[in-house]
Amino acid sequence: MRSDQGQPIRLSDYRVPDYLVDAVDLDIHLHETATRIRATLQLRPNPAGVAGAPLHLDGDGLVATAIALDGEPLPLGIAEPERLTLAEPPRRAFTLMVETLVDPSANSALMGLYRSGSAFCTQCEAEGFRRITYYLDRPDVLSVFTTRIEAERAVAPVLLGNGNPVAAGDVPGTDRHFAVWHDPHPKPSYLFAIVGGRLDVLRDATTTGAGRPVDLAVYVEPGKTAQAAYAMDALKRAMHWDERVFGRAYDLDVFNVVAVSDFNMGAMENKGLNIFNDKYVLASPELATDADYAGIETVIAHEYFHNWTGNRITCRDWFQLSLKEGLTVYRDQEFSADQRSRAVKRIADVRALRARQFAEDGGPLAHSVRPDAYSEINNFYTATIYEKGAEIIRMYRTLVGPEAFDRGMALYFDRYDGTAATVEDFLGCFAESSGRDLSQFFRWYVQAGTPRVTATTRYDAATRVLTLDLAQDTPPTPGQPVKRPVVVPLRFGLVRRDGTEQPVRTGAEAGLSATEHDHGVIELSTPSRRLRFEDVAPGTVPSLLRGFSAPVRLTTDATDADLVTLMTHDEDAFNRWDAAQTVLSRLVLAGLRGGPAEPAPLRAALSAVIETGARDPAFAAQVLTLPAVSELAHEIGRDVDPDALHAARERVRAGIGTMLAPAFRAVLAAGRNAGPYAPDAAGAGARAFRNAALSLLAAGDPENGAALALAQFDGADNMTDRLAALSVLGLVPGAAREAALARFYSDFADHALVVDKWFALQAAIPEADTPERVRRLMEHPAFSLAVPNRVYALIGGFGANPTQFNRPDGAGYDLVASVVILLDGKNPQVASRLLGAFRSWRLMEPGRRAKAEAALRRVSGQPALSPDVKDIAARSLG
Ligand code: ZN
């Protein structure tokens, strides 16, 4: 697809463009198989570029049907599918007109202009615009776009573009109509979008603080507007929050959201016209779970927040991707934290970070938040760019404090508005606002891998001195054998055995700087550091990394009793949860080694959590959910046997379920007469708590658990409880499970997003015949390789099944590899994301490792692989 034959693109090769585009006029005639695009570009030499350089416009599989320079036709021979060249462009401003013809119905990669159902839509990030017309398709070329769209009225009564609508009407004497959209804000081509089709719309309106009225609309497939209400509500909350918290107001007269069912990723922040995977828009209590609602709130906010962090200030080049993505994830995390329980949101985010980003950082696909080379940019929309990028933003705030952080953000918005910026530009704003030298902090952007921090304590009862030794190191990652120390902000406190907080008097006595003392944050920037706390009561436990103040793996010498102290008393809710996670994972790992894995020492602490569960059920649910097998596997680090690990984890769950069965039964009984469904934090928390109780009860007593689950499945009035019950049933083989699955399908066969859940749930069954089941389901009439959500549900779901993907006979690896090969020619992005299932293959014991490697080699040996899959396969093997 790309002309650069697998040659990596390097940050060090960055050059400013030789030409600039002042204005783009597009005239698009939509047609199912032959859409005609006439692009008129106002170009001029960039004074900062190379004078007289040839002009190369990017294309991807394009066919030009007409070209003219300042109105004079040019030979079509200057346009190849992948590039249009003007060898000697005028040395002054000039106008280039190019007409292209594309077939949206044949576009199975879902990049550029394609069809989703009967609608037309686009996806241009990162390099999809070049599949529509020839262009300087790079994020540092900003231009003002005017788009005229024309179509048969019956085919596409709705015609949407970026910016504001400026004209619309019929084409006289035809059955066609048109709409003209003008976006006054200069933008890069990756933010371009159009939509055309038969869509229903939910409308609303809001007014910015400065008094600008904004029309809001959510477009959905016909008949689904009722399911768009929550997205609209989230949008309005996000708009108000961004004004209140970041001082960022919306800047157009309209804001449109469109939900489509065929979409490679989550959603896209096109200026004024966000396009979404409908899974992040559509919800109703009967069809969507609490997690779906939370996902909608987050993604709606995320794409809206991009309007400032991404659109108004964009990226100079794709190496800076985290400049917009990390920052925007940070902003959506903060938004959701303000809408719900901050502590529970933080716990959920860290759980996801550990499961996805730590796994990436600890495997062959590790890369830095600001990579210095890539061969396929689509493979860099990763947990590292997004979630680790967000953790870096959070660390800025922890290090410089909230006031300097706010000043730094304001400076960034002020100084870089309307430009394409870099990570260095961003960092400079905080160096300036805080007066601090952040050059060492910059290593977080360029050094891959998860730093390890170890804490060792020594208590001298005679002098009442607690010595805390801290050390850091970062394991090598591909291409980066030697690492240097980073700045690790460790928010901390000292927790006495009686639960009170031990004050740290002046700080100086301990060796803390005044800033560290005032912020309550130890800054570990050297390989090791010693702190001495005086007049410390016996049994006092340091609570480190409060709120997960840095994306590191922390190992302490805390005993189980110390951890129970933290779990019970720490004023930091995150660390109460994390202490519980540590004890639970120690239990699993002890069981794995054949030692005792009795949860008895946790009885009191867990009982207390369950008791207070009435007050904070969402938190209790998080405590009662063990670390995932994949996370535990990374903790072990080598020669993992996922079957043994899964079994050890299930034994601990069963132990807890048996030990606390009466308490869990009481939780379930109390929940029976909970009121009508509401997707708010309180309702969701209560359901999560009850479903965690159900899951543990069933682990301890599968027969009784299955009966309880079946009753809940039958009686549920909402998808959250129904699906939770079905997941519990999913772990208990037998006719009841199969009957429930069949009923679920027949009840919800018309609801694609629910059918996805049905596929995913079966792909997750930890049983030996699951690969066979998945193969069978691929033949199911509802399965289609052309629908990304379906493929992610069944094949992606299977790739995340720790025991069955990693089967010792290699059948799991082969299954995913075969689908990757089958799909690659049609949709390389989806294929390459599926191949990511192999990211942790090197952790496995040698037998599995050999099978995984063979499967990866089979993929990489295929002729004519896409750059996407070729890159992931090569790096996975590298
Ligand atoms: Zn984003």
Describe this structure in words.
- It is globular and about 90 Å long.
- It folds into five domains: about 1-200, Immunoglobulin-like; about 315-445, Orthogonal Bundle (Neutral Protease, domain 2), CATH 1.10.390; about 450-485 and about 485-545, Immunoglobulin-like, CATH 2.60.40; about 560-700, Alpha Horseshoe (Zincin-like fold), CATH 1.25.50.10; about 750-878, Alpha Horseshoe (Zincin-like fold), CATH 1.25.50.
- The protein is α+β, with helices and mostly antiparallel strands.
- β27 and β28 form a beta hairpin.
- The protein has an eight-stranded mixed β-sheet with strand order 6-5-9-3-2-12-15-14, with no helix packed on it. A five-stranded mixed β-sheet has the order 17-18-19-21-20, covered by helices on one side.
- Zinc ion binds next to α3.
- The site of zinc ion has 4 residues, from α3.
Brief digest:
The chain is of the alpha+beta class and 878 residues long.
Labels describing this entry:
Neutral Protease, domain 2; binds zinc ion; 878 residues; Immunoglobulin-like; 5-stranded mixed β-sheet; 8-stranded mixed β-sheet; alpha+beta
Give the topology, please.
Blueprint: E1 9-10, E2 19-29, E3 35-45, E4 55-58, E5 64-69, E6 72-73, E7 79-80, E8 83-86, E9 94-102, E10 112-116, E11 119-123, E12 143-152, E13 158-161, E14 164-170, E15 176-187, E16 194-197, E17 200-207, E18 213-220, H1 229-246, E19 254-260, E20 267-268, E21 273-277, H2 290-305, E22 314-315, H3 321-339, H4 342-361, E23 373-374, H5 383-416, E24 420-421, H6 423-434, H7 443-446, E25 452-460, E26 465-473, E27 488-495, E28 501-502, H8 514-519, E29 521-524, E30 528-533, E31 541-544, E32 553-556, H9 560-569, H10 573-592, H11 603-612, H12 617-623, H13 629-636, H14 642-659, H15 661-671, H16 681-700, H17 702-715, H18 719-730, H19 735-748, H20 752-763, H21 770-778, H22 788-799, H23 802-805, H24 811-824, H25 828-835, H26 846-860, H27 867-877
Parallel strand pairs: 2-12, 18-19, 19-21, 22-24, 25-32
Antiparallel strand pairs: 1-23, 2-3, 3-9, 4-8, 5-6, 5-9, 7-8, 10-11, 11-16, 12-15, 13-16, 14-15, 17-18, 20-21, 25-26, 26-30, 27-28, 27-29, 27-31
The structure holds zinc ion.
